[in-house]
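Encode chain A's predicted structure.
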Amino acid sequence: MSLLQSRTRSAAEGFGKPVRRVEDARLIVGKGRFSDDFNAPGQAYACFVRSPHAHARLVRIDGAAALKMPGVIAVLTGADAEADGLKPIPHRPVPANPYEPQLHNRDGAEHFVAPHPPLPADRARLVGEAVAMVIAETAAAARDGAEAVSVEYEPLPVVISAAQATAPGAPLVWEEAGSNVCVDSDCGDAAAADAAFARAAHVVRLETRVNRVTGVPMEPRAALAVYDAERDHYTLYAGSGGSQRIKHDLTETLGVPCGAVRVVAREVGGNYGTRNAFYPEFALVPWAAKRLRRPVKWTCERREAFLTDFHARDLVSHLELALDADGNFLAFRGVHTSNVGAHAVSFIPLGKGVGVLPSLYHFPAAYVRARAVLSHTSPTYPYRSAGRPEVMYVLERLIDMAARRHGFDRVQLRRRNLVPPGAMPYRNPMGLLYDSGDYPAALDRVLTLADWKGFEDRRAEARRRGRYRGIGLSNYLELNTGAPRERAEITVRPDGRIDVVIGTLSSGQGHETSFAQLLVEWFGVELAQVRLITGDTDVARVGGGSHSGRSMRQAGVVMAKASDAIVERGTRLAAWLLEAAAVDIQFARGRFAVKGTDRSVGIFEVAAAALRPNAPDGLGGPLAGEGDETISTPSFPYGCAVCEIEVDPETGAVEVVRWTCVDDCGRAVNPLILHGQTHGGIAAGVGQALWEECHYDEQTGQSASATFMDYVLPRADTLPMFTTEISEVPSTSNPLGLRGGGEGGTTPALAATINAVVDALAELGVEHLEMPATPERVWRAIRAGQQTARRP
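Encoded structure for chain A:
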């Protein structure tokens, strides 16, 4: 039986065991190596002059004063970049995976993908866009030089929101596009949906906006570039979600062969998706290194990060839900408009959101028009479950509204419409084929864990304390796809170590531990004997990086294939060593043994024997195996969350007092790490629902949330202890039964939180609140409800 088919869980540190992360021993004592930790002899430092305007023509850039300042070496502009042949960043916003909604324009036209020069020569199209680059001997001198650069701007009209961008006569972000709408697609069956609405007993509508947020990783972006003139070769040290993606985009932007670029990353201090993209600085630093013939380093400051890190969400939804008299879902239909910012970097959140909008529920019909619009804001990009939290929020809000308006119990309304386990595999009305799952079991389990039946007693107790208490529920579905190809190279070393080279890249998910646990299980070795090697494109030559819950799903399959190859070759080597037939050799717990005897040899002894000069023909050389697979088939994690909150009516402050969730990940390699990822995901979701927002002034395009004084993050003292449980219904989409496990905490959190807030205030007549549900917004809703109640 191959390792792909093995489902044993015997090793103490193997598959399914809650093993503490081995990498933490290094990281908590400061021995990690993040992007800013890389340095090179003789390096210079870069600082960027950034536009204070959301839209402006660059009339003149004068660096003469800066060049006179101590330590300043060069001032580079977009004109210099054009003269040197620096090309636009090759964004590919349309998903390549055939299992994702493709968002073809309804009129058959090609998508407009705006050119993205790393350093524009003509216009700035968002506040914070780099318009000049100053290089100096020190970081301080570079900052001083940047302040001395004189830029003459001609301010131009701006569009910030989706509503502004689609208004008649709106200023165009890119005049050559002829419109700010860069995608106008649809999905589903409009005629079937319309027919369902025509016979519906109840119709509920919701128009809402899902607020714009950003990832705020602990480690800001940084880059160090070294240029080797003799080889005409670039080395870029930069953390991201995947070094191969950065390498390929860098080669295209520089216009050089793939072999002329190496990208290296070690530790990455937080990602959540927004660091997977190629940023302008990743091209500008290597370009400057070649011009100056010396290494150049840049480290992003937090104020720059708030302005220029890619943002996320920012979806306007107009959706309606049709039900029959008994509460059976008949259809949904509507329009989703995604604000993708100044550059169309990714349409994936819009497409995935449309595909999974039916969630865990059976809908006979559905139709959604999906649009993406350009604006003078930072581009949006896949972030923490890209596209799915938004649509789960809209759908679950509609279900709660339908229950309150038409007298249904909100739990029973959900339960009666869940896709039953016997219907799997199930194709939803948007065309996605769900792999497996027991949705009613997850719902029932979370209600038990959350003590849903005992809530009214807790609500009454809170009212005696002068507080409004509410409870909210949200089911959810995930769509895990991602780059389909992954490769693993595993080598067993005679000195007692197993090296694993793979193209994923951890940003805190514990890959060094969880990936190693699979080899502990399969090879019968100790966790400390496995070394994971990632992030260097000269070593890990192929790989899709970490996104869309792909790392463990893809890595597990290719590592199993590589391990199978090692066991197969090791069996033949052991037969030679033990003077037995290969068919009589069995491998278990790290040893090859002759069946029915006590004669055996360990895997590391076999690795040493393979290096002997007299090794049999075809079996000599390092004991190694490779796995290289293209896996496009998605998996569909799912689950349910219950949130309880209390509202202080005097201040409008919302306190999350209980949180319970059940998440199905197919099979859990390391439950401890999965629970930790769920905790972080919950914090991200609750943060967006209650506090976080990238806010722009609609008249000027200025950011009003570019510091931690204005952008509010969740903290440990603002969240309760979480009750999380893992469900394991094996996925049928891959041989190991794995689904993604890192995004479930976020996906239902927006809906569960706002459903709880509305439930708390429902007696005041509050039916809906926009996100974030800040104290002011809640306070105003309370006052409006109280005033309405006092009217005769």
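The mean pLDDT is 95.
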